[in-house]
Design brief:
Elements: E1 35-36, E2 41-50, E3 53-60, E4 65-72, H1 74-79, H2 82-96, E5 107-115, E6 118-125, E7 128-131, H3 132-135, H4 145-164, E8 167-168, E9 193-196, H5 205-212, E10 216-219, E11 235-238, E12 254-256, E13 263-264, H6 283-286, H7 293-308, H8 321-332, H9 337-342, E14 350-352, E15 355-356, H10 371-376, H11 388-401, H12 412-416, H13 419-425
Antiparallel strand pairs: 1-2, 2-3, 3-4, 4-6, 5-6, 7-9, 8-13, 9-12, 10-11, 14-15
Helix pairs in contact: 4-7
Amino acid sequence: MQETSPEIIYPFPEGIENLHGYQPGGYHPANICDAYSNGRYRIIHKIGFGSYSTVWLARDSHLERYVALKILDAEASMDSNEARIIRHITQSSEKNNFTGKSFILPLLDEFHINGPNGQHRCLTTEPAGCSLASSKKNHPWKFQIQVARAMAAQAILGVRAIHECNVVHGGKSRLSFCLPYADYLHDLYPNNILLALRDINHMSVDELYHHFSTPKPTEVHRLDGGPLGPGVPSHAMFPAILYVKCLKVEDPRIRITDFGESWFGDAVPPKYLKTPMLYRPPEDVFAKELLGFPADIWTLACTVFEIMGERSLFEGFYPDKADLVAEMISCLGPLPSSWWDAWEEKSEFFVEKGVWRTDMARARDAKSHPLRWRIENMGRQEDPDFSPDEAESLAVMLSTMLEYDPAKRASATDVINSDWMTRWGLPSLKPFNISV
């Protein structure tokens, strides 16, 4: 029997969550001025959304501060492990005073609400700004070099703190919009590393609106003109404008967020990584039983490259796993023999091992672009503050993080002790008064 496509009832306004998600098991229809947890949290503005949650800026009347209020959809609320993971990281890192803990967004509170679409888990954290990916979405697509170094160093320190808490960050892919707080393609990559937001707790609501934009609602209507469902809001809200253009970023403090697909290091890894395709480690393709802390290190290497330059380490047009493997070979050289033999699509790219096809149907160059070539062409060629010495040191560090064999891949501690971190990464934090 042929499957039928879901009925399209609502339009798809840009910058708004999928309105079809307002149904039993889906989004909660929150709105400005709504209050939750016995009136403690009052919604002030919308921050972002994902295909499994909406995120709001709320005022905590108990502590007289602003928080980010994440409301999971009812279905995701039933099996979400996120709160447990974040609570463990927050408590463990504080107890052990792990270096890098300040670069992880802590859990402040958790509660449940009931609505027309079911019961929803709510998480509150410190509010933060736009993602690094959002900041880079317009030309020239790169941060100032001193800002980039500081961001990359914090990401590395943050990952070490996460690993010291016995947590593998993991990843997920849930959305098609690049927005602050969107739970889209989450893993250790620029879309779920957020810019820290300067202190806004002293601001009145009017001052906050003046600084970030006033709430902008749009009326919700059905395409057929019919009545809205009982769990559908009468108006949807556009998110606050938290965007900061990459070259305008002056305070490089970051926060690593979203642990919805994380797992404890001694637990059975997931059957499938939901990490964005071009950030996935080779073991996700060839040896899923080896997924663990080294998978985070691989993705972290891709993230550091992207923070430091203007493009991603691996590239592709709507890539699948075969494109990813070809990019790995192009950048890092031949696969281990057992993986090469097991790779079913190799004939689409290679005449034989090491010899690219010149007549391939795939949209890619029929030649290799090694890691050092990619660093030379990452957009820093004209930057006098990015020396050949630093480029070589960065290449050495990244190569240890991109070992095919997870057992040989650098640990987060190894990365912190690398030459690049010692000479460029860690020293970059001091001018910004960023403590670790």
